[in-house]
User: Fold these one by one.
Assistant:
Number 1:
Amino acid sequence: MTRRAVTGITLYDGSGGPPVPGTSVVWDDRRIISVGTDASADTANAEVITTGGWVVPGLIDAHVHLTLDATVEGMEGVATEPVETTIARARSGARILLGAGITTARDQGSRNGLSIQVAGEQRSGTLTAARIMAAGRGITPTGGHGWMIGVEADGADGVRAAVAAEIAAGADVIKLFPTGGILGSGAHGYAVVMSAEEIAAAIDEAHRHGILVGAHVHGPPGSRWSWMRASTPSSTQPPSPMSRSTG
Ligand SMILES: [Zn+2]
């Protein structure tokens, strides 16, 4: 097994202590073997790949869209480009995340739910990338924001069925679009386009499966509205922080 090391780094281990300069870390293909001062770490037989810099725990990005690119044209174009192009962009994005130190990312809505496929490829080892928590398709009303990375559903029963379908497809989290947005066509940014009943039904269905809900909300009315709905007594579990997050 190949041993590799970084030496002379500043280590921040996330435990609450201060960063520790003059540290070495040694690992092999499976695990970290030793962490210590440059003098004490077991760097014998290890290939030193870099000196200096920082080592931190894997970072978490709670809001990515692997199938999008960051342009208005990309928002619209993702709906019509060849699906092979979309999946290639998603795989590439997941690889780039890992290279940037992000070891876990939550995909908050993807074209055709392709993030679920990418998450599976990472889990199975066929894709070396960040670990992905995938929402699959975001749930938006007809004419709502995010339709190109979502599925349109209307009415409490329709939204509940859409949530169930995403969970059945392998979603790790549910994404709602209760308000409009800025990028791409669809409802304008401050419009609150999901009803109280629709939001409550989505949260109830997700929580019955033990799955959390993230919501894209713009503006104070939309934020307050979603917060209130996330706290509705019809939820079978106390609302989690993620149920109330913006996104
Ligand atoms: Zn988003």
Number 2:
Amino acid sequence: MARVLSLVLLLATLASILPPSASQAATRCEYPRHAGHGYKHPVGVRKVVVDAGGAGDFTSIQQAVDSVPVNNTVRVIMQINAGTYSNKLDHERARREKVLVPASKPYITFHGAGRDVTVVEWHDRASDRGPDGQPLRTYNTASVTVLSNFFTAKNISFKPRSTVQEQTK
Ligand SMILES: *[C@@H]1O[C@H](CO)[C@@H](O)[C@H](O)[C@H]1NC(C)=O
Ligand SMILES: *[C@@H]1O[C@H](CO)[C@@H](O)[C@H](O)[C@H]1NC(C)=O
């Protein structure tokens, strides 16, 4: 239940940073000139392609995020091709596949191919074991954590697989 709540919070957070009108215009300047609080316009646009099947620059979203330099000043549009970006192989990979956008990397955009076809899906339960053998706590199970400013996402969905399974039991 707590995990479901944290998902709701995650989605609420995403929703709050993704007003529909703003998300339509991510390739243009979606921020007013006087947005205040230190907003600096990115100095250009770089596009990278994430493709789970290997047809892009990266096969995982985290690899693409990792490629962005610290103190990034460019709007980086990550075209995330249709696919399920999941963590089905094993628990070690599962944790690595979770997406973390650090505070030092502003101006990142996730641009999926469509909400139904570009899906970040994760599988873990609070009872799964962490590297120390202890059960993972619920707060370790969010799949996408965005700590940076000026992040946008569109046409992509994020969903926990295990929650769906639990609900249908
Ligand atoms: C990034 O910016 C911070 C704050 O200005 C600075 O302290 C840090 O050294 C910078 N890091 C790099 C790698 O440029
Ligand atoms: C979003 O995805 C839909 C298909 O689900 C596509 O028709 C539309 O062009 C996409 N919009 C953007 C901005 O990528």
